[in-house]
Amino acid sequence: MPSHRYRPAHARVPLPDLTDRTWPTRTIDRAPLWVPVDLRDGNQALAEPMDTARKRRMFDLQVAMGFKEIEVAYPSASRTDFDFVRHLAQSDAVPDDVTVVVFTPARPDLIERTFEAIDGLPRTVVHLYTATAPIWRDIVLGRSRDDIHTLVRDAATLIAKLADARPAQDVRFQYSPEVFNATEPDYILELCDDLTGPALWDASPDRPVTLNLPATVEIATPNVYADQIEYTHRNLARRDAVILSVHPHNDRGTGVACAELALLAGAQRVEGCLFGNGERTGNVDLVTLALNLHTQGVDPQLDLSDIDAVRRTVEHCNRLPVHERHPYAGDLVHTAFSGTHQDAIKKGLAHHTARAAALGVPPEQAPWEVPYLPIDPADIGRDYEAVIRVNSQSGKGGIAYLLHTAYGLDLPRRLQIDFSRVVQHATDDSGEEATAPQLWDLFHATYLAPYEHGPLTPAAWHTTETAPGHHTFHATLPDGREVTGTGNGPLSALTDALATAGTPVDIRHYAEHATGTGPDSPAVAYAECRVGDTTLWGVGRDTSVLTASVHAVIAAAHRAHAHTDTHIEGTAR
User: Fold this and answer.
1) How far is CA 143 from CA 147, 149, 177, 187, 194, in A?
2) pLDDT tens digit sequence for 257-271
3) Is the pTM of this model over 0.85?
């Protein structure tokens, strides 16, 4: 590949020389001011931009989630955008604690059109932007640094004049030097300090100006962006009168990292989109950023407790799907197929439940520490049904987990290992995922169904305790034979009876448990039995523990017969 055609960031634009940078030693301990730009920046990246109905649905979602500033439109760009701002102004759709942001380039006619759109809105931020990077100045605009500065100054003057003419409205100001990350640092300070000075927007701590510093196109590693933000943060003339904002894009796939490092470097506000929609590879994803904070114990100040509902609305409005592997929100992000992962998660969930009980708190309030799950799926409205799913890569832990959660089975460890081989064989053949019902059907066919048909399935049977510690088992076999056995318990009497029928059975392992608390809840019995040279498992399920046990032993014996017959037939061939 012709890599020699490209220049690194430091060869394109001067970068700040921060030998005493402080951002690497900081931590994020509070949420920034989040500003979704789905209705403007995200919308202009859609093949089919939103109409007013879809825009309103997105706006209502963002209000419900808790956003306090929402960029709603580029009113001078289209009739649809203009009409949506008028809709908000005329429909009382904007709550008292929410401020709308509108976007405008530095052209007098478009600025005036923008102010027409916001007429009647009680609280508005007018967001002015100009491209400032050398490549844009030279190739796109054909203007010098001084020319751009004059353009910005004239636009800011007009904005201040139009705002002063609306004393009943609270109009605040925002400026974006577009392509900030590819612009000379001294030029950024020159423009921003002039805008916030007394001659133009006269920023003050009680009426701050938002300075938004976009990584419009990612050109460097996130640490470079952090240095650029910290340099600006430390050198602005009126820092205490500025809300320092960032707007990362994702061209290098590091938009989230750029935003997080920018917050460490002094940023207070982040613009982005829900699930990262935007031009090219998208804007930074506010959902991921917010939930990253949540997993660090920091309240993101956004309601993401039903992330599937949020995703459905965004997918409807954007008419774009959210990827199955999208952080936090994708269908598969809490799902483990790998056997080792499943085993760790199964053990982790059991440990979490036990820890909550020991602390005397509900599981949803207990500290969360579960392997492979950085977040409790329940925090964002997910259940545990999709956490472990089974395919040919899966192991005993995941299979056992699904059978336990769906059917109440607590498989003994050796049975888990045995059944995992059965499942792997089935999924290897099909190449498909196995659902919990499919696992149950396979488990039933393998371990329970063999009781139903075979030479040892009794037409009738009963046990009797003839003396303390002395039991008899009597059965009528399908061929009409009557068999009786004795032992120190019902199962030992059963095996004695089977021996008299010509099938000696040695029970190597036995376990049983209830699957519920009610009188009609079935019990399950597991029996690992040796018959001749073959050792296999059988399972029984019945409201009677004894009946379930008898079924389990006979099922194992029938499986052993079938295994031996198949082996002999295969050898003969």
Assistant:
1) 6, 10, 15, 14, 19
2) 999 999 999 999 999
3) no
